[in-house]
Write a structure and sequence with these properties.
3 helices, 5-stranded mixed beta sheet, binds fe (ii) ion, 12 strands, mainly beta, Protocatechuate 3,4-Dioxygenase, subunit A, globular
Length: 262
């Protein structure tokens, strides 16, 4: 990644006021190279977590400043297994409140492949590694929970199934409820004259538990609520869904635990 983008990301993170958590809210946003299977939203530049046309999108708008820094996913060198191992030693929480839902947005697409590397080696952007534990409301880890994950690229655009489910994938928790995947830090996108905070979409399910569709945000993002322009079901101010990233050998690494209701 360039020195400029590195500085950008570090300054972006430096203003973090919320730490340790994971769940926030937010609507989906997207733009793909084709039609949006989920709601007819524009594919080539439109974004709107609520499925509206993005009348406010200016192609040249603040993307340069709004998009978080990125580096090649191929540079991702960290080991998700190591991250999982570290998590296994962590004490379970005393209480587990169900993860709050967030707007699904119009760009979910079913049928994403099972994989823990969501970004191809040549995907532009800063390497990202997210890991965590999926639990039930009694805090017991849930083995075999399914996480359907999707996100925007470095420019804030989404890509559909026809693009090899770019930046999409399904991840399953192990026997101890742990999951991990690698991707790139998603870009932000303009909405309604402002900018949505960067986010990753999750749809999480497990037999016998209530599924949740939500979004994960990043600490220090200046566009988190109350400055998030998405007000249609978005809630990017939930500290439990705001993840603090740590630069580990060039990989922006964070933890996002999820709790499903009964
Ligand atoms: Fe989105």
């Amino acid at each position: 990644m360039s020195e400029r983008t590195r500085r950008d990301v570090l300054s972006w993170m430096a203003v973090a006021t919320t730490t340790g958590g994971l769940l926030g809210c937010g609507g989906g946003s997207s733009s793909t190279g084709g039609a949006d299977a989920a709601g007819g939203a524009r594919l080539d530049g439109g974004h709107d977590d609520a499925g509206r046309d993005d009348a406010g999108r200016d192609p040249d708008a603040d993307l340069a400043d709004a998009a978080p820094p990125h580096r090649g996913a191929a540079d991702a060198a960290s080991d998700t297994g190591a991250a999982d191992a570290a998590r296994a030693d962590a004490a379970p929480p005393a209480t587990c409140d169900p993860t709050r839902p967030d707007a699904q947005g119009p760009f979910f697409q079913a049928g994403a492949p099972a994989r823990t590397q969501l970004a191809a080696d040549d995907e532009p952007g800063d390497a990202l590694e997210i890991s965590g534990v999926v639990r039930g409301p009694d805090c017991a880890p849930l083995a075999g929970a399914l996480l359907d994950v999707w996100q925007a690229d470095v420019n804030g655009d989404y890509h559909d199934a026809g693009a090899d489910y770019r930046l999409r994938g399904q991840v399953v928790t192990d026997a101890e409820g742990r999951y991990a995947f690698r991707s790139i830090v998603p870009g932000r996108y303009p909405l309604g004259g402002s900018t949505r905070p960067a986010h990753v979409h999750f749809m999480v399910s497990h037999p016998g538990h209530r599924p949740v569709t939500t979004q994960m945000y990043f600490a220090g993002d200046p566009f988190l609520a109350p400055d998030d322009p998405c007000t249609a079901g978005c809630d990017s101010g939930d500290p439990a869904r705001i993840v603090e990233l740590t630069d580990r050998a060039g990989v922006m690494t964070g933890t996002f635990d999820i709790t499903l209701g009964a």
